[in-house]
Amino acid sequence: MAGSTRPRRPRRPRSQLQSPLLRLPPEIRTKIYRYALVRDEPIDLWPHKWTKPDESAKPAVTLLKVRHQESLEYVRKEMATGLLGTCRQVYNEAAMFFWADNHFRFTGRSGWQGLLRFFLTIGPEARSRIHRVDVHAPIYMRWPVKDSDNKDLNGRSKNFPKMHMMKIPEEGHLDRQAIQRLCVVLAQDRTLKEINFIVPEGFRNGDEDDFGGYQEDHDMELDSGIRLQRLQSLDWIKMTVVVERGGYLAVNEGPSQIMAEGWDLKCLPGSSIWEKGAEDKGGNVDYEKHEVNETRIWRSPSRGLDYLVGVKELLQEVGEDSQHANGGKHKGASKTKLERTLKGFNGCRFIGCDGVLLHLPAELH
C-alpha cells in the first residue's frame, strides 16, 4: 500500500564486549583515559580574572564584557568528558583519573562559594578521589588593589553560570558561611589531603585598619573565631598559603605569622612581602617591602607533628549539663584537656606546651 511503512525491528542492546575500546588491554585503556581526561595545567573553575572585553561586540556596545572561562572551555572542547557517559564500565574505569589526577582551582573572590557548590554537586564518591584543591585565601583578604568595585562586580557576574548545580542560599557573609559549611563536608569525608590558599595577582592580605578606600569591616579577618577554628580543626589537611605573581603578603610578623597558624607559606617570583618596620619617634610605623625574585618556601614547625592528627578528638571532653540563667539545661562547650596521660596508648604521653600537643616516646617516661 502507498504510504505504508515497514515496522522497525527492536534494537538489541549491544554487548560492552563489542566495543573496540573495551576489547583493548586494561593498561592501554588507562593511557587513553589519562590522555582524554587529564589536563597538565590546573583547571580553574572560579578564576579571579573575571572578564575580558567582547572582541565581537560592535562599537556601540564596547562596554559589554563576556565571561572569561578558558579552563571551562578547555574542559568542554578539548577534554573528552563525554567518555564518562558512554557506559557504566567506562565510567567506573575512567572517572577515577578525571577526579584524582586533575588539579582543580577556585582562586577568584568568593572562591569558597564555588568550591562548596562544586563539592556538593559532584557527590561523595567523586570527592573521595580529589586529594588537593586551590582556593582563594581566607586570611584577612583585602579587596583588589585597583578598580575594586568593578572587579568585585565582574567577579560575581562571572561565577553564576547557568549550570545544574546545587543552590546555596544567598545570605550575608556568603564566603564565611561557605567556609564553615565546607569545613563540615571535609570533616565528614576526611579524604582531602592538601589545600592551597591562593593570594592572586592584584590582591593582598594584611592587618592595617584602612587600605584602598575600604574599612576593616569589608575584609575577611584572619581572627574570625568560628572560621579560623573550623579551618584549624582540619588538622589532617596540609594547608599552604601561596602568594602568586603580582600578589603580596602584608603582616606584622612576616612569614612567621602565617606559620604560627600551622600553615606553610610559598611566595612565587614577582610577589611581595610587606613586614612591619621600626617605629619612629612619633609612634608611626612603616611597612618594609621585600620583593621575591625566586620561589621561597617557609614550612610551619607544627607540620612536623603530623603523627598527632586526630589527637585533639581523642582528648575531647564532653561538656557537663549546667543550669541556664533563664531556666532549662544546656550543655557547656566541649573543652580539650591538654595535659593528660593516655594509659594503654602504646606508652605515649601527650602534654600541653603553649597549646601544642607533644608526643613523648615510651622510653622517655
From TrEMBL:
Domain of life, source organism: Eukaryota
Domain DUF7730, residue spans: 15-157
Protein name (Swiss-Prot/TrEMBL): DUF7730 domain-containing protein
Organism from which the protein derives: Cladonia borealis
